[in-house]
Amino acid sequence: MTTSRAMAWTLAVSACLSWPALAEEADSGAIVAAQFAAGGNNQGVRASGAKGVCVKGTFTPAPGAAGLSKAPHFAKPTPVTARFSMGGSSPKISDKAKPVTRGFAVRMSDGPSDMTFVVISAPVFAARTPEQLLEFFKVRAPGPDGKQDPEKIKAFGAQNPETTRQSAWLNARPVPASFAGVDYWSVQAYTLTNAKGTPTVARLKFVSADKAGLSDDELKGKPDSFYADELKARLEQGPARFDLVAILAEPGDPTNDSTANWPEESRKTATLGMLAITGIEPNATCDARTFDPVAELPEGIAGPADDPMFAIRSPAYAVSLSKRAN
Ligand code: HEM
């Protein structure tokens, strides 16, 4: 081999070795497949939030909300379809599981226009980019013995420390006593725009009016599934209330990294309205379509254009819907 041919060969080999196409592309299909695999490949369920309860209610905007956003949902009360859920793709997950996020998908419907938020019981998400999310799930896929490899998970966490912030946060807090007894964060930043065109950047938070956690002893006394019955009994007594609060960004707060917490205690907030969950709905009401937090937004509110984790949610939720509908 001549020197120049040898050089070309070496270059070609090293180009192949580092060529990104060799790594699996972190598209919505690959991520959803990895989500299903991490939970044991259950059929007919969501790739995340597989175990959950469908509910209904009303959102009533606060007097100042229209000053921040021209979305019609901030101008008058709207009916709500919502779903509480346990994180992950296993419908058999225990309601006692820790560190696992509880989820809340909320659709406010104003005639043809929906405003949908899909939020979790932690202020941060577990991955910063689609590539990192794909790997996050891949290292959690059970092996042939049906068990996850804790060493693999630990090594991934050590190499990607920002992916461990969510579990650290959850581990430092008690398991919620109720789906309605915990706060839920958007983790991603939204831009609210009012009728004058003034933008306000904020993360959103549903603040429970009745926060309660379980002590370790209380947790021991609970069965693996108690949230659905607890919620039914609670709603028979009256609505479960949440304030929707905007946590206002200050210069330097990242809008493209949902693993980074904003120092919430020192941020100004604005209450956008009150969500009253009033009753249980048949599962079919929530299962017929997906709660799409990207496509279902009216004028006056937009997700973060600079966060690749936001846009990818729409196709991922559609892939999951197509799989569970089959
Ligand atoms: C970044 C913030 C995110 C939050 C707070 C979040 C939260 C949630 C919640 C609460 C659910 C349950 C929805 C329901 O009850 O119907 C859900 C479902 C789902 N999430 Fe996310 N998620 C996030 C990002 C992502 C990303 C980046 C992906 C994948 C690229 C993803 C994939 C899914 C899928 C496939 C479902 C099932 C959808 C369905 O079948 O209807 N999520 N998510």
TrEMBL record:
Taxonomic lineage: Bacteria, Pseudomonadati, Pseudomonadota, Alphaproteobacteria, Hyphomicrobiales
Enzymatic class: oxidoreductase
UniProt KW keywords: Heme, Iron, Metal-binding, Oxidoreductase, Peroxidase, Signal
The protein's Enzyme Commission number: 1.11.1.-
PANTHER family: CATALASE
Record-stated family: Belongs to the catalase family.
The species this protein was found in: Methylobacterium jeotgali
Role summary: Has an organic peroxide-dependent peroxidase activity.
Protein name, as recorded: Catalase-related peroxidase
GO terms assigned for molecular function: peroxidase activity
Domain Catalase core: 32-326
CDD domains in alphabetical order: srpA_like
UniProt gene name: srpA_2
Signal peptide: 1-23
Family matches, as SMART domains: Catalase
Cofactor requirement: heme
Coiled coil: none
